[in-house]
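Can anyone check this?
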Amino acid sequence: MSTKTPDSGAATGGKGQLTTLTRTTVLALALLTLVFVFQNTGTVRIRLLGSDVTLPLWTALLATGLIGALCGAYAMKRRGQ
């Protein structure tokens, strides 16, 4: 016989299930974002600080998403300090 007790939250649907749900949601949103980005393949002209750049729309969307992700990661890191 074993006196082993269940992990905290595992039997009651606590933190373990929440983490799995969060990861699944983030993965689904990331996948949808990538589908959206790569379906928009037209060319756009972007003006920023006086310069004009012509590039595929997916490149601009992907760059914007990466910049947003980096800003969010930086904010989360600062918040944890």
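Reply from J.R.: I decoded it. The mean pLDDT is 81.
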